[in-house]
C-alpha cells in the first residue's frame, strides 16, 4: 500500500480567526425554459409523443415533401402559364422615360389576363422576365440552355437595360393596389374596346344580335362597380324582374373608375410652387371632366340598350294583356259568368252589320223626308185650287 508523505507544520503556524460574517438565508429564483434544446424537447414531447422513432419518421417525410416541391418547381408546375408571350421588337424598344404610355401587362407577358391577373401570376411573370433580361445575367452564345423549365425557350443572351427598367416599372405599378387601379382605369385594351361599342347606326346598317353585341360591353364595364355582384344583361327569356333590376342598377351605376393616371407631370427640377399648384389644379379639373364624360358615355349606352331591347316590347305586351284581362274581369256580370271574348272576325262582322243598319236607317229617313215634302207640296196645290174656286 502506498504511503502519503506530508510536510510538518511550521512552528510559526497559527489557527485562523473565526469570521464575523453571517450566511444569507435561502431565496427562490424562477428558471425560464428557453433555448434550442428546450424547444427541441418540447417539440419532441408534443408532436411525437417523446418518441425518437416518430421524430425520425417525420423528418424523413418532410425531406421527401421538400424534394417533391423542388422537383415540381423545376418542372414548371407552379408556372401558371404566364410570362411566356412572344416579345416583339416594338415592345423591346420601349423607352423607360415614356413609362406612362407602356402596356405593363404586355411587358410582363400578361396580355391574355390583364386586370384578371392575380398577384401570384404577376410575381411569377416578373421573375421570368428578370431571369431573362437582368443586366447581370450576361452570358455568351456558347452558354448551354438551362435545364430548368422556367427558362426553356427564353433567350438568355439579352442585355437590354432599358427594357429591364420597363419590367421593374411594370412590377412596381401592378403590385401596388392603388397604382394598379389607376392604370386599369385607362388600360390600353379597354380604351380600344370602348371605341368599338355598338351604336344605333350599327344596328341599322348591319344585322347584329342584340345580346351578342351588348353582353360583352356590360361585362367590361362591370369591373368598375363599387357594388358587387353586378347584374348582367341576360338573355331573351329573362324575366320582367331581372330586366327591371338590370336597368335600375345601371341607371344608378356607382363607378370607382378614376383618371389620375392621365395627370400631367410637374416639370422635373421645378421648385416653383405656383407652377406646381397650377398643374395640380389643372389635373383636378381634367379628372373631373373625364369622369363626367365617362358617366355620360355609360348613360348613353344604357339608353341605347333600353331602346333596342327586344324584351321591352314583350313586357309591354304582357302588361297590356294583363290590364285588358283585369278590365274584362271588372265588367263581368254580377252572377259571376264571364262573357267570352269575341274574336276579331266577330267584331268585324258586328261592325259591318251596324254600318248596314245605320245606312238603311239613313235611307228610310231620306224617303220619309221626301214623302213628307211631296205631301206638303200637294197640300199647297190643293189650297191654291180651293182659293181660286172661291174667287
What is the topology?
Blueprint: H1 36-48, H2 52-74, H3 89-92, H4 104-107, H5 119-133, H6 161-174, H7 177-185, H8 188-195, H9 200-205, H10 210-221, H11 240-251, H12 273-308, H13 310-330, H14 344-390
GO molecular function: hydroxymethylglutaryl-CoA lyase activity
Keywords: Lyase
Biased composition (Basic and acidic residues): 318-327, 342-367
Please describe what this structure looks like.
The chain is mainly alpha-helical and about 400 residues long. The protein contains 14 helices and no strands. Helix 5 (about 120-135) packs antiparallel against helix 6 (about 160-175). The relative contact order is 0.04. Mean pLDDT is about 85; it is low at about 140-160.
Concise synopsis of the structure shown:
With 391 residues, this protein is mostly helical. 57% of the residues lie in helices and 0% in strands.
Q: Top keywords for this entry?
A:
391 residues; DnaJ_domain; 57% helix; single chain; Zuotin; elongated; lyase; mainly alpha; EC 4.1.3.4; DnaJ_domain_CS
Biggest sheet character = none
> Looking at the chains present, what oligomeric state does this protein adopt?
single chain
Helix content: 55-70%
The low-pLDDT segments are 138-159
Order of helices and strands: HHHHHHHHHHHHHH
- Portion of residues in beta strands equals under 5%
Helix count equals 14
Q: From the alpha-carbon coordinates, what is the Rg to the nearest angstrom?
A: 48 Å
How many beta-strand segments?
Answer: 0
Taking all residues together, what is the mean pLDDT?
Answer: 83
Label the overall shape.
Answer: elongated
Span from first to last CA?
A: 212 Å
Structural class: mainly alpha
Amino acid at each position: 500500500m502506498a504511503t502519503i508523505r506530508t510536510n510538518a507544520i511550521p512552528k510559526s503556524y497559527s489557527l485562523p480567526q473565526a469570521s464575523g460574517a453571517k450566511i444569507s438565508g435561502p431565496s427562490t429564483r424562477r428558471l425560464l425554459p428557453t433555448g434550442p434544446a428546450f424547444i427541441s424537447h418540447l417539440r419532441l414531447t408534443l408532436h411525437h409523443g417523446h418518441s425518437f422513432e416518430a421524430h425520425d419518421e417525420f423528418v424523413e417525410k418532410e425531406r421527401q415533401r421538400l424534394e417533391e416541391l423542388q422537383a415540381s418547381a423545376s418542372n414548371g408546375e407552379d408556372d401558371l402559364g404566364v410570362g411566356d408571350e412572344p416579345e416583339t421588337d416594338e415592345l423591346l424598344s420601349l423607352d423607360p422615360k415614356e413609362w406612362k404610355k407602356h402596356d405593363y401587362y404586355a411587358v410582363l407577358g400578361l396580355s391574355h389576363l390583364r386586370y384578371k391577373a392575380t398577384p401570384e401570376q404577376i410575381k411569377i411573370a416578373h421573375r421570368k422576365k428578370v431571369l431573362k433580361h437582368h443586366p447581370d445575367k450576361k452570358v455568351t452564345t456558347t452558354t448551354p440552355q438551362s435545364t430548368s423549365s422556367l427558362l426553356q425557350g427564353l433567350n438568355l443572351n439579352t442585355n437590354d437595360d432599358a427594357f429591364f427598367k420597363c419590367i421593374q416599372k411594370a412590377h412596381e405599378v401592378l403590385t401596388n393596389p392603388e397604382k394598379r387601379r389607376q392604370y386599369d382605369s385607362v388600360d390600353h385594351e379597354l380604351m380600344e374596346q370602348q371605341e368599338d361599342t355598338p351604336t344605333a347606326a350599327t344596328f341599322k346598317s348591319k344585322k347584329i344580335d342584340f345580346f351578342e353585341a351588348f353582353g360583352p360591353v356590360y361585362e367590361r364595364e362591370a369591373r368598375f362597380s363599387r357594388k358587387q355582384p353586378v347584374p348582367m344583361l341576360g338573355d331573351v327569356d329573362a324575366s320582367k324582374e331581372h330586366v327591371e333590376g338590370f336597368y335600375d342598377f345601371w341607371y344608378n351605376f356607382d363607378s370607382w373608375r378614376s383618371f389620375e393616371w392621365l395627370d400631367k407631370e410637374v416639370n422635373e427640377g421645378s421648385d416653383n410652387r405656383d407652377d406646381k399648384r397650377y398643374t395640380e389644379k389643372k389635373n383636378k379639373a381634367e379628372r373631373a371632366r373625364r369622369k363626367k364624360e365617362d358617366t355620360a358615355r355609360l348613360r348613353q349606352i344604357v339608353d341605347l340598350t333600353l331602346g333596342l331591347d327586344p324584351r321591352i316590347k314583350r313586357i309591354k305586351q304582357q302588361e297590356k294583356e294583363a290590364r285588358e284581362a283585369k278590365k274584362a274581369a271588372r265588367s263581368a256580370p254580377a252572377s259571376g259568368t264571364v262573357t267570352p271574348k269575341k274574336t276579331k272576325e266577330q267584331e268585324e262582322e258586328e261592325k259591318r252589320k251596324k254600318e248596314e243598319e245605320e245606312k238603311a236607317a239613313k235611307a228610310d229617313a231620306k224617303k220619309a223626308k221626301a214623302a213628307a215634302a211631296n205631301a206638303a207640296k200637294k197640300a199647297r196645290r190643293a189650297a191654291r185650287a180651293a182659293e181660286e174656286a172661291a174667287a
